[in-house]
Amino acid sequence: MILTRQLKSFGRKVLEAMGYRLYRPGAYFIFDFESYLYRYLQFKKTLTYLQIGANDGKLNDPMYKFVCKNHAALTGYLLEPLPDVYARLVKNYQDFGRIKTYNLAIHEKESNLTLYRVKPNLEGKLQAFAKGIASYDPNHWRKSKMIPNQDFIEQLKVSACPLSTFILENHIKEVDLIIIDTEGYDYEILKAILLLSVKPKIIRFEHGLRDGIMTSEEFLDICTQLNKSGYQVIPESYDATAFQLNPTELVL
Q1: In 86-200, which ranges are E strands?
Q2: What is the reported pLDDT for 245?
Q3: Is 22 within the bounds of a domain?
Q4: Closest among 74, 56, 147, 156 to 115, alpha carbons compared
Q5: With the CA atoms of 246, 217, 204 and 14 taken in that order, what torsion angle do they form, in degrees rounded to the nearest 10?
Q6: Which of the two residues, 247 and 195, has the higher pLDDT score?
């Protein structure tokens, strides 16, 4: 009986180190990204992250609360291409000197391109989530199922550069975490990440399979590529986390 309890305790610690949290009733584990970051920070002591498609830094953001509590140990590079949204991003992170912001998009081929987003003056007629669906795809708004028609969408020219160029120009030598939320371009950025000389330990990305953000073929392909590059992938309902860490290291 004592051995059984010890095995259960060890198994719980391993799962919690991987970012899973135990919920009752039913005693099941679900992946908790923030808990995983806390485990990682406890082990590594510092964390450098790159966030592509940061929006205003708060809306449906997986990092904001974590940054507020741990900013002294973090170095961040946050990219947001829409000028008005970028202004809010700057304001929301103005008190965190180690978090840098960039009014820029990542694209592997184009330096100037068009984003399609909800018109700011019509955002109040939609759910708050609609503010975050800017995309390179002119028909992306149809996938959200919350925008009545194309009259809600406007075009905006933005600046962009390849991911490798951004990392080189900003002298980034190490990245613990890359977070991607680009409403349909995550697949291309993930492929670019796998070609970097500086590879992140953790990658958080949006697959959006239920809305067709990624196709099932793309998701399977990128998971296969990530596995071949030494990553384990934990899929959730709309996002996924890939990590290279040995979870037992975080238990010690």
Answers
A1: 99-102, 105-106, 112-118, 153-161, 177-180
A2: 58
A3: no
A4: 156
A5: -30
A6: 195
CATH number at residue 122: 3.40.50
pLDDT one-digit tens code per residue, 109-133:
999 999 998 888 888 777 777 767 8
Q: Residue 245: CB partners within 8 Å, gap ≥ 6?
A: 40, 201, 202
Query: Do the domain assignments include residue 244?
Result: yes
User: Is residue 35 in a domain?
Assistant: no
Sheet holding 177-180, edge to edge: 99-102, 74-79, 47-52, 177-180, 202-206, 239-243, 232-235
Residue 108 domain-assigned?
Answer: yes
Whole-number Å distance between alpha carbons of 196 and 180 = 15
Report strand pairing: 153-161 vs 112-118.
Answer: antiparallel
At residue 31, the pLDDT reads 83
State how far the Cα of 35 lies from the Cα of 146, in Å rounded to an integer: 31
Q: 3-state class of 103 per DSSP?
A: coil
What is the per-residue pLDDT for 209?
93
Output the furthest CA–CA distance in the chain (Å, rounded).
66
As for how many domains the chain has, the answer is: 1
Q: Which range marks the domain in which residue 121 is found? A: 45-250
Q: Provide mean pLDDT across the span 6-26.
A: 47
pLDDT at 26: 46
Q: Nearest Cα to 136, choosing from 179, 188, 193, 182?
A: 182
Are 17 and 247 a contacting pair, CB within 8 Å? yes
DSSP SS3 for 77: strand
pLDDT band for 8, please (50, 70, 90 cuts): very low
3-state DSSP percent of the chain in helix, strand and coil, to 5: 40, 25, 35
